[in-house]
C-alpha cells in the first residue's frame, strides 16, 4: 500500500507541474483514488481537510473582491504617487504599497489592483512598464509571508503550527515572521533604488480616484481586528478564524443586496472566490493524509535526518534553500502543503521545537517564488497584464530584478530565523 500511495502521489505532482490549468481536477481525482483504494478511509479524509484554512481562504477572497470593487486601493495608490518626486521613487512607493496591501490581501489580487496604476504612469511618460510591474509582483510575494492572511501558504502554516494572527508578529516572546519579512523589504528598497537609479522623470497625478463605497474597507479592517481579538481567546473553536472571514464576507454581500435591492450580489461575489485553489488544497489535504496513513511522511522525515547526520542547522539550511530552488519553478501552495508535515516529522525525530524549520520553509518557499517568472501566481499575473498591453517579458529581464530581490530577502530571512529560533 505504501508503494502504491507513493506512486500515485508522485504521478500527481508531475501532472500538477505539467498541467497547471488542470491542477484542481488532478488533485481531487487523486484524492478520490486514495479513498477508493482504501489508503484513506472516507471518514478520515474529511478529518484531514483543514476546514478552518479553507473557510479563511474563501472568506478573505470574497472580502478582497468587495475591496477591489470599491476602488479604495486605486485611491491609496494615487495619494501615494502624488507625493513622490520622480519615477524612481514612484516605483519604490508602488512596490512598498503593493507589499503593504499584500500582507493582508491575496498576492494576485494585489497585483491586479496596483499594476494598472503602473501601466498608466508608463503610458504618460512613454516608458516601458515592465520593470515596474515586475517590482510590484515580487514585492507582493515577499509580504505574503508577513501575516496570517497574507498568503495561502501562511494560512497553511498557521493551521499546521496552531498559530494565530498575533503569532506572526511575536512568537514565543520573540519577533515573528512579520518583522523578519520587513527586514527583507527594507533591503529590497536598496535593490530597487539601485536598479532604477537612472529613472528620474517627474510625474503628476491630475485627479484622484473616487472611492465608491467605504464599507468594504471597514470589512477588511474588521476582519483583521477580529482575527487579532480571536488570537487572545482561550479554548476557541478550531474553525473560529474561518467563521470570522466567511461571516464578514456574507455580511458585505448582503449589505449590497439591501442597498441595491439586487439579491444576486452574494452569488456574484461568490464567483470571485478561487474555487480551483480551494479544490486543489482539499485534494492535497487528503493526499498528504494518505501519505501519513501509510507512514511515508515519517519515512521522508527520517531521510532528511540521515542526510544531515542529525545536524539541525544542516537540515534547516537544506529546507530553506531547497524551498527557494523548488519554488522558483513550482507553485508554492502544493509544495508547502506537502512539506509542512514533513518538517513536523523531522522535528519529532530530533526532539526539537519545529518552529525554526516551519519558518525556514515559509521564508524559502514564499520568497523563492520571486526567482523566476513562473515561480509565483503573482508573477504570472503581472506578466499576463504586460502581455495584454503588448509587452513581452523574457526570463532574463525578469531575473535581473527577481534574483537580487530574492537573494537579499531570503538571505536576511535565513539568518534572522536561525538567530531568533534556531540558536
UniProtKB/TrEMBL annotation:
<keyword id="KW-0813">Transport</keyword>
<dbReference type="GO" id="GO:0015105">
    <property type="term" value="F:arsenite transmembrane transporter activity"/>
</dbReference>
<feature type="transmembrane region" description="Helical">
    <location>
        <begin position="47"/>
        <end position="68"/>
    </location>
</feature>
<feature type="domain" description="Citrate transporter-like">
    <location>
        <begin position="13"/>
        <end position="364"/>
    </location>
</feature>
<dbReference type="GO" id="GO:0005886">
    <property type="term" value="C:plasma membrane"/>
</dbReference>
<feature type="transmembrane region" description="Helical">
    <location>
        <begin position="89"/>
        <end position="119"/>
    </location>
</feature>
<keyword id="KW-0812">Transmembrane</keyword>
<dbReference type="Pfam" id="PF03600">
    <property type="entry name" value="CitMHS"/>
</dbReference>
<feature type="transmembrane region" description="Helical">
    <location>
        <begin position="217"/>
        <end position="233"/>
    </location>
</feature>
<feature type="transmembrane region" description="Helical">
    <location>
        <begin position="275"/>
        <end position="292"/>
    </location>
</feature>
<feature type="transmembrane region" description="Helical">
    <location>
        <begin position="398"/>
        <end position="421"/>
    </location>
</feature>
<feature type="transmembrane region" description="Helical">
    <location>
        <begin position="176"/>
        <end position="196"/>
    </location>
</feature>
<keyword id="KW-0472">Membrane</keyword>
<feature type="transmembrane region" description="Helical">
    <location>
        <begin position="239"/>
        <end position="254"/>
    </location>
</feature>
<feature type="transmembrane region" description="Helical">
    <location>
        <begin position="312"/>
        <end position="330"/>
    </location>
</feature>
<protein>
    <submittedName>
        <fullName>Putative tyrosine transporter P-protein</fullName>
    </submittedName>
</protein>
<dbReference type="InterPro" id="IPR004680">
    <property type="entry name" value="Cit_transptr-like_dom"/>
</dbReference>
<keyword id="KW-1003">Cell membrane</keyword>
<dbReference type="InterPro" id="IPR051475">
    <property type="entry name" value="Diverse_Ion_Transporter"/>
</dbReference>
<comment type="similarity">
    <text>Belongs to the CitM (TC 2.A.11) transporter family.</text>
</comment>
<keyword id="KW-1133">Transmembrane helix</keyword>
<dbReference type="InterPro" id="IPR000802">
    <property type="entry name" value="Arsenical_pump_ArsB"/>
</dbReference>
Amino acid at each position: 500500500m505504501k508503494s502504491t500511495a507513493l506512486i500515485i502521489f508522485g504521478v500527481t505532482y508531475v501532472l500538477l507541474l505539467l498541467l497547471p490549468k488542470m491542477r484542481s481536477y488532478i488533485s481531487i481525482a487523486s484524492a478520490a483514488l486514495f479513498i477508493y483504494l482504501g489508503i484513506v478511509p472516507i471518514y478520515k479524509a474529511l478529518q484531514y481537510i483543514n476546514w478552518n484554512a479553507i473557510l479563511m481562504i474563501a472568506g478573505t477572497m470574497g472580502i478582497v473582491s468587495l475591496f477591489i470593487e470599491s476602488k479604495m486601493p486605486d485611491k491609496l495608490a494615487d495619494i501615494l504617487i502624488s507625493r513622490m518626486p520622480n519615477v524612481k521613487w514612484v516605483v519604490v512607493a508602488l512596490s512598498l504599497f503593493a507589499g503593504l496591501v499584500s500582507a493582508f490581501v491575496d498576492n494576485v489580487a494585489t497585483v491586479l489592483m496596483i499594476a494598472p496604476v503602473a501601466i498608466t504612469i508608463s503610458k504618460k511618460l512613454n516608458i516601458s512598464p515592465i520593470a515596474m510591474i515586475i517590482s510590484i509582483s515580487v514585492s507582493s510575494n515577499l509580504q505574503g509571508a508577513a501575516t496570517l492572511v497574507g498568503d495561502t501558504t501562511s494560512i497553511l502554516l498557521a493551521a499546521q503550527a496552531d498559530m494565530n494572527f498575533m503569532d506572526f508578529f511575536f512568537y514565543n516572546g520573540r519577533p515573528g515572521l512579520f518583522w523578519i519579512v520587513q527586514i527583507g523589504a527594507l533591503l529590497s528598497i536598496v535593490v530597487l533604488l539601485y536598479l532604477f537609479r537612472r529613472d528620474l522623470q517627474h510625474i503628476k497625478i491630475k485627479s484622484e480616484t473616487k472611492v465608491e463605497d467605504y464599507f468594504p474597507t471597514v470589512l477588511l479592517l474588521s476582519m483583521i481586528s477580529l482575527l487579532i481579538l480571536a488570537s487572545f481567546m482561550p479554548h476557541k473553536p478550531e474553525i473560529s478564524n474561518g467563521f470570522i472571514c466567511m461571516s464578514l464576507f456574507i455580511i458585505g454581500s448582503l449589505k449590497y443586496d439591501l442597498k441595491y435591492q439586487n439579491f444576486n450580489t452574494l452569488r456574484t461575489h461568490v464567483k470571485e472566490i478561487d474555487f480551483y485553489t480551494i479544490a486543489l488544497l482539499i485534494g492535497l489535504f487528503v493526499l498528504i493524509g494518505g501519505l501519513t496513513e501509510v507512514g511515508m511522511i515519517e519515512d521522508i522525515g527520517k531521510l532528511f535526518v540521515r542526510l544531515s547526520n542529525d545536524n539541525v542547522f544542516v537540515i534547516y539550511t537544506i529546507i530553506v534553500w531547497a524551498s527557494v530552488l523548488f519554488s522558483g519553478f513550482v507553485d508554492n501552495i502544493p509544495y508547502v502543503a506537502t512539506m509542512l508535515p514533513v518538517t513536523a516529522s523531522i522535528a519529532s525525530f530530533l526532539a526539537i521545537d519545529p518552529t525554526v524549520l516551519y519558518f525556514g520553509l515559509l521564508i524559502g518557499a514564499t520568497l523563492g517564488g520571486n526567482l523566476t517568472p513562473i515561480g509565483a501566481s503573482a508573477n504570472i499575473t503581472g506578466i499576463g497584464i504586460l502581455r495584454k498591453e503588448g509587452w513581452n517579458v523574457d526570463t532574463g529581464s525578469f531575473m535581473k530584478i527577481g534574483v537580487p530581490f530574492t537573494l537579499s530577502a531570503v538571505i536576511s530571512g535565513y539568518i534572522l530565523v536561525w538567530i531568533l529560533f534556531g540558536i
